[in-house]
Amino acid sequence: MGITLSMNCPSCGGAVSVDEGARMASCPYCSLLLSIEGDQGVSRIMLKNKLDRSKAEGVARGWMSGGLKARDLKSKAEITECYPIYVPFWKLHGRAVGWVCGYKEKKDDKGHTHREYMERMVLKEFDWNGAACDVGDIGVEHLSNLDGEALLHDEGSIPTFEVTTSPSDASAQGISGIRRAAISSASVQHETFVNMHVFPKGLTLLYYPIWVIRYRYMGRMYFLTIDGITSKVLSGRAPGDTLLRSIAMTAGMFIGGFGSAMGLRWLFATSGDMATLGLVIIGGCLVIAGVSYAFFRHGSEVTTGSVRGGFNLGAMLNRDASVKVSAPLQTAMVRRR
């Protein structure tokens, strides 16, 4: 599913839905064949909001009851504000064409490492998006969803943030983001040569509906934002659970100490596969201990999305939703031994 634009037939006045990028359409009522021509420059599209206040508050209550948040947050949180706002995002559709050469390392049955050389051609289309304004503390810099029912944007008809970035800057950032994503999609472990070109096909200013909810808990104010189309929580800030922080610190210290001791024992007391297993155990225990310490230190607040501060597991995993594949990957690969 992609973005669809609703318009009226110039002959009978019936509603016609046109897919984004389409050049021809047919009226389902009078069968008139329509030729679609866009205006020059940047197109502006407003996506239709599919949530109301009661549904948004229901999504917020559900979010409050999950994760590492305070256990009584859902019952004691007082929602003080709940309203929709349209946030402008730049959307760049482009095609990446090029080659990525390199190699990956593999081990044979004897444990010897050798290189497997490869060349991969990439021919793929992407959709990049990024906020066209200063999003402040709402923590929504990119969109993971670009689908929806679109309407022609009427300036001043909806509450929105002011656009603060230029089309040229947005296009440059989009081309750079698409190029990085195209190179990464080639899945070449060690790159030795890259020749990748990006051909932009269209830049759109997309006004996306986002619900902003502010609530009070134990005398402090927090917030979250909800996607007005998919009903998913995009970002938020919530109080952490004190008991879980204490348990995480205790468990992290125990697992880190005991697991590392056992791993060291296997590492120095044995050889071969058992020694490798010892290294894996040590590494895993250190990772668990590090995550536990991070939650203990920053877990007084739990954050979601691109919100700064607090404990944010998604940010630790470094997820990037700025580029989305819009067409199946077509690759040609040549391996050399």
What is the secondary structure topology, with strand pairs?
Layout: E1 3-8, E2 15-19, E3 24-26, E4 33-35, E5 43-47, H1 53-64, H2 73-76, E6 78-107, E7 113-131, E8 148-152, H3 167-185, E9 190-217, E10 220-227, E11 233-239, H4 242-269, H5 273-298, E12 301-304, H6 313-316, E13 323-325, E14 330-336
Parallel strand pairs: 1-8, 5-9
Antiparallel strand pairs: 1-2, 3-4, 5-8, 6-7, 6-9, 7-13, 7-14, 9-10, 10-11, 11-12
Describe the structure.
The chain is of the alpha+beta class and 337 residues long. It is 28% helix and 39% strand. The protein has six helices and 14 strands. The protein has helices at residues 53-64, 73-76, 167-185, 242-269, 273-298, 313-316; strands spanning 3-8, 15-19, 24-26, 33-35, 43-47, 78-107, 113-131, 148-152, 190-217, 220-227, 233-239, 301-304, 323-325, 330-336. The strands form two sheets. Strands 1, 2, 5, 6, 7, 8, 9, 10, 11, 12, 13 and 14 form a twelve-stranded mixed sheet that branches. A hairpin with a 5-residue loop joins strand 10 and strand 11 (233-239). Helix 4 runs antiparallel to helix 5. The longest helix is centred in the C-terminal third of the chain and has 28 residues, at 242-269. The chain is flat. The two termini are 42 Å apart.
Biggest beta sheet summary: 12 strands, mixed
Percent strand? 35-45%
Number of strands: 14
Question: How large is the radius of gyration?
Answer: 25 Å
The best one-word shape is flat
User: What is the percent of helical residues?
Assistant: 25-40%
First CA to last CA: what distance? 42 Å
Q: Spans of 5+ residues with little confidence (pLDDT < 50)?
A: 327-337
Structural class: alpha+beta
Put simply, the count of helices is: 6
Order of secondary-structure elements:
EEEEEHHEEEHEEEHHEHEE
Mean pLDDT: 78
